[in-house]
Specification:
This protein has 345 residues and is an all-alpha fold. Helices cover 79% and strands 0% of the residues. The chain has one domain.
């Protein structure tokens, strides 16, 4: 169990850092940066890895009902929609606030629903109540981080000088709505993993019938999720490239470095899901509820740390920093409670 927790915390580090290279991409529109990322992250990296590492991948899917396969792919499609929204939310709000709002919504939808789907009989037990309380505290901590981000935005908006016209107002509310919707749709990836693994037993088939190692078998589920996500996310990026005529940006100087940075993003993104799947497998049936709460909360901690390191909180008010400190403290308390509840289970 402790080793599973450690893998999930490592996964949260990758989740909190994989988007950082996007800050250093030059001369690209949103659809160039995130379109290249979607191509690498949803197709090249995961499908290539699965084809090389897993035995009997196609035959594994042949053993699963069509309804389960379609459900996993459809939820992956929603996840891809959420990813597109999240990319816009990060561009509007920055790493700190974007991570807090999106991951908080994901923790609410992606942790509690799988818990009730697979462990409803344990809800009234002492361990079950502690798990639910820990998840709710994690969500409260994420909400406090969101408040801190809003206060930061207000403190960084200076009044115009006398006689000067006011600066155009940044529509923070629109960014908040985008990030909340991104979290709602993105929670589909965890629900899809729960359905494909715990209910459809895709990973168990890959282990029992095709002798894949247990720590690797979860990739069979993720490959389906990536397939659904590819249709929505990469498809949307292609539409934006055609609509805005930004294909030509791929011919600008520095595109080699830009593509390398988006490949780094894809590798970090794959690593976060791989280690999350490994840790979730070690936690057993509670991996998609308990593990997911730890996964999301840890990524918010990392995202806020990166926000500080990249200057997002430079010049922010002391009040906003106190709200941030309080939110991070509550998050840590929630992670501890979730771990205790898992031990009681």
């Amino acid at each position: 169990m402790l080793l599973g927790m450690a893998w999930i915390l490592l996964a949260s580090v990758f989740l909190g850092t994989f988007a950082l290279p996007a800050k250093y991409v030059k001369n690209y529109a949103w659809e160039n940066t995130w379109g290249a990322f979607f191509f690498f992250a949803m197709l090249i990296v995961p499908v290539g890895f699965a084809a090389l590492a897993l035995k009997g991948l196609g035959a594994t899917y042949a053993q699963v009902s069509g309804g389960t396969l379609l459900g996993v792919i459809a939820l992956g499609f929603l996840w891809g929609c959420g990813f597109c929204l999240w990319g816009h939310g990060l561009a509007r709000l920055g790493l700190s606030l974007g991570y807090a709002l999106t991951m908080g919504t994901m923790a609410l939808c992606g942790s509690i629903l799988p818990f009730f789907l697979g462990q409803a009989d344990r809800v009234a037990t002492r361990g079950g109540l502690v798990v639910i309380l820990g998840i709710l505290i994690c969500i409260a901590g994420v909400a406090l981080n969101g408040v801190a981000g809003m206060k930061r935005e207000r403190s960084l908006t200076s009044p115009p000088a006398a006689g000067a016209s006011p600066a155009p107002k940044k529509n923070t509310l629109t960014g908040v709505i985008i990030c909340v919707l991104a979290g709602l749709f993105s929670s589909g990836c965890n629900i899809a993993y729960h359905i494909g693994g715990n209910l459809g037993h895709i990973d168990r088939i890959a282990i029992d019938q095709f002798h894949n190692p247990p720590w690797l078998a979860g990739i069979a589920v993720w490959t389906l999720i990536f397939g659904g996500g590819l249709v929505s996310s990469f498809g949307f990026a292609i539409l934006r490239l055609a609509q805005n005529r930004t294909w030509k940006n791929f011919a600008l100087p520095g595109t080699g470095l830009n593509l390398f940075l988006t490949l780094l993003m894809a590798l970090g993104h794959f690593a976060c899901l791989f280690f999350y799947g490994l840790g979730g497998w070690m936690l057993g049936a509670l991996g998609t509820s308990v593990g997911f709460a730890i996964f999301q909360s840890g990524s918010v901690l990392i995202g806020n740390a990166l926000g500080f390191m990249t200057g997002e909180w430079k010049g922010a008010s002391a009040e906003s920093r106190r709200w941030l400190a309080g939110g991070l403290t509550v998050l840590i308390a929630g992670i501890v409670l979730v771990s205790v509840g898992n031990t009681l289970q």
